Fold:
Amino acid sequence: DDDQSIYGWRGAEVGNILRFERDFPGAKIIRLEQNYRSKGRILKAASGLIDQNRERLGKTLWTNDDDGEPIRLSAHWDSTEEARAIAGGIEELQRDGHHLSQIAVLVRASSQMREIEERFINQAISYRVIGGPRFYERKEIRDALAYFRLVAQPRDDLAFERIVNSPKRGIGASSLQKLTQYARASSLSLLEATMSIIGTDELGAKPRHALAGFVDQIARWRREMEQMGHVDLAGVILDESGYTGMLQAERTAEAHGRLENLKELLRAMEEFENLQGFLEHVSLVMENENDDDPDKVVIMTMHGAKGLEFDTVFLPGWEEGLFPSQRTLDELGNRGLEEERRLAYVGLTRARKRAIISTTSNRRTWGQWQPAIPSRFIDEIPESEMERINQPTNQAGSWHQGSLPASRFGGPGWQRMQDRSRQARMAPPEPMIFDDDPMGAMGDDQGNGVRVFHQKFGYGTILQVDGQTVEVAFDKAGTKKVIGTFLEKVG
Structure:
């Protein structure tokens, strides 16, 4: 199914499907358009969305089932309110007799899961994460927490063992074995034993030097803990330890996802007054993760959900930059946008009976509120197949048909937000200075000095043009290389 080709980042090329007739002349194309999963309005919404893609064979899904409920769009102030609303909606479904195992929360990025998971734990909603571990069980999160625990609790031997050689510091297994034996024989913690053994000849020069540097780092971070806020300190630890540098050097989609998870971890820390309070919270969360009840809500990424189906699907975070992913747009241009749209199509069509899209007005990143703009995909869903719900601030609310006053559907507040969002996406008004055709791009020096606007990085000045790649000095984000298709000329 060309409309469900969503693994371009793994090397799956939708062009192989689109070129089929040309590559195999005389082949007969049979379109399988009857859908046996979703209600009629879900199919109409998904079809209206995917129709915006130019690179597709084309088909119109239909069903013998009834139209069912419209797609519901829920607007929230921030991701905390969004998670609260999702949990409230699930509790309402549960009270009405729906099985939790027939409810899914499908996210664009795994970093979105943390806040949803914690809300479910707080409200005693059983859940499981498919396609990967829960947020606090992810390797990069466990590694970061081990660093934080060792700084806060220097006698934590499990934390020491986990991160003493992560990233690699040239400390071999035999050196660690000697260190462990020395610690046990001396009744010392591993950190105390390290401080002692590096002054002896028990270890070779290389591991001694590496361990001495590690001990110095821990000591410095402990001193800084007295003077620095815990979130800032956490960022310093991840940077100075070389952990973020290790992930950045990988230059893979998986490493990028791990970095996003670390950012989300720091965002979670902002909600606590100090490091110790946060670590205690994490311990409580992880204690609540042992539940054998098979009736659980499913949380997973939309990429992982292909081929699955659920009665009810929640689709949070439909905002520009998050979905469609700004990184995908920057790297792949219009080709990336069409794959993101196919991903939205897959997400919607996982729902059998009801789908709830949610968006926020603000997201908190690195300690600062960033305004969020509703995803362009929302505007591409036919209005006739959607019911807009403006959730009340700081309340879970209710999204069942008829459960909210009529004034909240398409009301003036929601409409003003939509109008502002459209204006933000349209401004600046001048057309893009590059088109999708590299032959139509500016010459290598034609655009130099031109003022431009980028959806993610803001305003800047072109330094150099190389085909479709443009180097821009952005006013706030610094110098970046971006795809010319996503620049708009200003002034």
In short: Residues 170 and 207 are 6 Å apart (CA to CA). The first strand starts at residue 71 and ends at 76. Residues 438-489 form a domain with the SH3 type barrels. fold (CATH 2.30.30).
